[in-house]
Design brief:
heterodimer; A: alpha/beta; Rossmann fold; six-stranded mixed beta sheet; four-stranded antiparallel beta sheet; 7 helices; globular; B: about 425 residues; alpha+beta; 2 domains; two-stranded antiparallel sheet; 13 helices; about 50% helix
C-alpha cells in the first residue's frame, strides 16, 4: 500500500476578522487535505471564506485558531521571515494577474528567482523556458500593458512556476478574462497537472471551471459543506 | 536577493517616474551644490589670503607695535600714551635670538609725477636692515637699493612705478617725484612737499605686505622719515629671529614685552595665520550650516515622495511579499531608491557647485576684488582659486546620500512592515 504525501493540510482552521468592532468568522473550522499531484477546485459564492482559506494555505495570513501544514510545516507557528521563505515554495496566480507593470514578461518571470538570489543567466534561461511552456516566448520582451488578459495570465502562471513550487495556488484565475481565453488557461493548467504533476489548488465561483478539476470542495459560510471527486 | 538585483529593481522604479525622481533629485543637487560652492570658495579665499600673508610676512619675524595689538597698534598709539621710538631697536637687538630689527614709520601721502598723482604709503626704513630681513622681497628690479642712502634717494614698489600693470610707467629709476604730506597735527595743518630721486624699483612682491615690502609703497631712509614727518615715534618694529621655532617666537615675544614693561604687543606670522585659520573655520561652518538647511528641505521632499510612492506601490509590495521577499529586502529596495537619488543628486550637486564656484571666482576676477592691506591705492588685485578638497568632495557625497537615506528610513520601514494580505487587497 502506497503512502500519499500531503502537500497542504488544514486542521480545524478558524479565522475571525474584526469588521470595525464586530467580529466576523470567515473560517469556522476547515479541515482539508491536498495531496501531491492533486488538482483541487475550491468552489463557493462570494463571502463563503474561500479567499481567506487561500490566504492561510498561501502563508499570506495566520489563522486565529487551528493548524495549517504546508509540506508538514506548521505555518501557523512561523515568524514573518520563515513565512516569506515558505511562500517561495508556493506558486501564486491572482485574478488580476498582479504583474509588475514596469518589467517585461521575462522580467516578471525572473523576479521570483531573483529573490532567493539565483544568477542572472540561469534565471533568464529558465524564464525563457517557462514562457515557452505557456506559449509566450515570442512576447517575452513585452510589458504587461502590451499583452492581452489571457497573455498576462499566462505570464503569471509562468512566474508562479519559476521556483519549482510545491503547488500552484490560483485565485479566480479566469475571473478577469473572456470565456474562450479562460478555457485555454484551464487547459494549460490541466496539462501542467497531468504532464508535469504540478499540484494545483484553484479557487473559483465558476461551476464549469471547477468541473475541470480532479476534485471539488464546496464552501459556504466558512465551512466545507460538500466534497466530490470529478 | 543580490545587491545588484536590488539596485537594478530600484533603478527601474526610479526610471518609471522620471519627472518626479528628477525633481526630488534636484532638491539634493541644490543643497549639495550650495555646500560645495560655498566651501570651495571660502577654502580658496583662505588659501589666497594665507598665501598673500605668507609672501609679505616671513615666519621668522615678529611685529612689535605699541599698545593694543597688531593692526590697532600699528595704526596709532596705546591708551597709556606709550610711544615706540625708532631707537628702541637697540633694546630689542640686545635680546637673545634676535638677529636684527628695523623700525618703520609710515604715513599716507601723495606721490606726484608730472600731472599725475597717487595716494601711497610713504614708509621710512633703514634700507640696510630692511634688506637683510626681507632679502628675498626687498630687491630691485631696476636700479640699486643703496645700503647707505643719501637723503633724497627713494625706492618705489612695482605698482608705484607701473600702477596699471601694463607697462605705462608713472615713474622709473632716475626720475624725480614729488612727495606731498599733510601734517594734520600741526596748527594750522601744514602741507609739506619734497622732491625725491628714484634710485630703484622693487621686483613685484604680491601679497598683503604685513610689515614686509609692498608693491604700492614708497620707501625713504628712516632718518628722512623722522625729519619729514617730524617724529621719532615709529609705527612698528620688525624683528628678525635666528629661527622660526615656536619656542624662540614665544621666548623673544615675552622678552620684548618685558623689556617694554608690557606696553607693546608682539605679533608673529604663525599667530596671525592661526587666527585667520580659526576665523575661516567658523565662517565655513556657518556657511555649510546655511547650505545644509536647503538639504534638509530636500530630505523632507524625499520623504514626502517616498510616502506617496509607498501608497502607490502598496500592491506591488504585496506581490513582492507573496513571491517570498522578506521585509528586510523590501526595506532595502526602498532605501536603495533613496541611495540612488542621493548619489546622483550629490554627484551632480558637486559638479554644479564646483562649476558655480569657478563662475563666481571668474566674476570676482573680472570685477576685481581689491584687498586693502597696507596699500593705500589698493591696486593689488586678489584672485580666488576655488579649492575642492577630497574631504569636501567625500563629505558632500556622504551628506547627500546620508540625508536621502535618513529621510527615506521611515517610508521604507513602513513599506517593509506591510502585511502581504492587506497590501494585495489595497486598491
Amino acid at each position: 500500500m502506497s503512502v500519499t504525501i500531503s502537500v497542504v493540510e488544514t486542521i480545524n482552521l478558524r479565522k475571525t476578522y474584526l469588521l470595525g468592532k464586530v467580529p466576523v468568522d470567515a473560517l469556522r473550522g476547515v479541515n482539508l487535505r491536498v495531496e501531491k499531484g492533486d488538482f483541487l477546485a475550491i468552489l463557493g459564492p462570494s463571502g463563503s471564506g474561500k479567499s481567506t482559506l487561500l490566504n492561510m494555505i498561501g502563508a499570506l495570513d495566520k489563522p486565529t485558531d487551528g493548524k495549517v501544514f504546508i509540506e508538514s510545516v506548521d505555518a501557523s507557528t512561523l515568524n514573518d521571515n520563515q513565512l516569506a521563505d515558505l511562500r517561495r515554495r508556493i506558486g501564486f496566480v491572482f485574478q488580476f494577474f498582479n504583474l509588475i507593470p514596469r518589467l517585461t514578461a521575462r522580467g516578471n518571470v525572473e523576479l521570483p528567482m531573483a529573490i532567493p538570489g539565483l544568477g542572472k543567466n540561469e534565471r533568464r534561461k529558465r524564464a525563457e523556458e517557462l514562457l515557452e511552456t505557456v506559449g509566450l516566448k515570442e512576447r517575452m520582451n513585452h510589458k504587461p500593458a502590451e499583452l492581452s488578459g489571457g497573455e498576462r495570465q499566462r505570464v503569471a502562471i509562468a512566474r508562479a512556476l519559476a521556483n519549482n513550487p510545491r503547488f500552484l495556488l490560483m485565485d479566480e484565475p479566469t475571473g478577469n478574462i473572456d470565456s474562450k481565453t479562460a478555457s485555454e488557461i484551464i487547459e494549460l493548467v490541466k496539462g501542467l497537472n497531468k504532464e508535469k504533476g504540478v499540484t494545483t489548488i484553484i479557487i473559483t465561483h465558476d461551476q464549469h471551471i471547477a468541473s475541470q478539476a480532479k476534485r471539488t470542495v464546496q464552501m459556504l459560510d466558512g465551512l466545507i459543506v460538500h466534497e466530490k471527486v470529478n | 536577493m543580490k545587491a545588484s538585483d536590488i539596485l537594478s529593481y530600484s533603478f527601474s522604479a526610479i526610471k518609471l517616474r522620471k519627472l518626479r525622481a528628477g525633481l526630488t533629485t534636484l532638491g539634493v543637487v541644490i543643497g549639495i551644490a550650495a555646500i560645495v560652492a560655498l566651501l570651495s570658495i571660502s577654502q580658496g579665499l583662505q588659501n589666497t589670503i594665507t598665501e598673500q600673508l605668507q609672501k609679505g610676512f616671513a615666519t621668522d619675524t615678529l611685529i612689535v607695535s605699541s599698545g593694543g595689538g597688531f593692526g590697532l597698534g600699528a595704526m596709532g598709539t596705546s591708551n597709556s600714551g606709550f610711544k615706540l621710538l625708532v631707537n628702541d631697536t637697540q633694546t630689542i637687538n640686545e635680546i637673545a635670538n634676535v638677529v636684527t630689527s628695523v623700525a618703520i614709520i609710515q604715513r599716507v601721502g601723495y606721490v606726484k609725477s608730472g600731472e599725475r598723482d597717487f595716494i601711497r604709503y610713504v614708509v621710512g626704513v633703514d634700507f640696510a636692515n630692511y634688506t637683510s630681513i626681507y632679502s628675498s622681497t626687498f630687491i630691485a628690479e631696476s636700479g640699486d637699493i643703496p645700503l647707505n642712502p643719501e637723503n633724497e634717494m627713494i625706492v618705489v614698489g612695482k605698482r608705484v612705478s607701473d600702477p596699471w600693470d601694463n607697462g605705462t610707467l608713472f615713474c622709473n629709476v632716475n626720475d624725480n617725484v614729488e612727495i606731498l604730506w599733510t601734517n594734520a597735527t600741526a596748527r594750522p595743518p601744514k602741507n609739506e612737499t619734497y622732491t625725491r630721486h628714484v634710485v630703484a624699483v622693487l621686483k613685484e612682491v604680491g601679497g598683503l605686505g604685513v610689515g614686509g615690502p609692498s608693491d604700492s609703497s614708497v620707501y625713504i631712509p628712516i632718518s628722512q622719515a623722522q625729519t619729514f614727518f617730524g617724529t621719532d615715534e615709529c609705527d612698528m618694529i620688525i624683528v628678525k629671529l635666528e629661527n622660526d621655532d615656536e619656542a624662540t617666537i614665544k621666548n623673544v615675544s615675552e622678552a620684548i614685552k618685558e623689556a617694554f614693561s608690557g606696553q607693546v604687543s608682539v605679533t608673529s606670522a604663525t599667530a596671525v595665520l592661526n587666527i585667520l585659520s580659526s576665523v575661516f573655520s567658523t565662517i565655513e561652518l556657518f556657511l555649510a550650516g546655511i547650505a545644509a538647511i536647503s538639504l534638509l528641505v530636500a530630505g523632507i521632499g524625499i520623504m514626502n515622495i517616498m510616502i506617496v510612492s509607498l501608497m502607490e506601490r502598496t500592491r506591488e509590495i504585496g506581490i513582492l511579499k507573496a513571491l517570498g521577499m522578506k521585509s528586510r529586502t523590501v526595506l532595502l529596495v526602498f532605501l536603495s531608491e533613496s541611495v540612488i537619488i542621493g548619489l546622483i543628486g550629490a554627484a551632480i550637486g558637486i559638479a554644479s557647485g564646483w562649476g558655480l564656484a569657478n563662475v563666481v571666482a571668474i566674476v570676482f576676477r573680472g570685477g576685481g576684488v581689491f584687498m586693502g592691506g597696507n596699500q593705500a591705492a589698493g591696486t593689488n588685485r586678489m584672485t580666488i582659486t576655488p579649492v575642492l578638497t577630497p574631504m569636501v568632495f567625500l563629505g558632500a557625497l556622504a551628506f547627500g546620500v546620508g540625508v536621502s537615506v535618513v529621510f527615506a528610513l521611515y517610508p521604507a520601514w513602513r513599506a517593509s512592515k506591510l502585511k502581504p494580505v492587506e497590501a494585495l487587497r489595497y486598491e
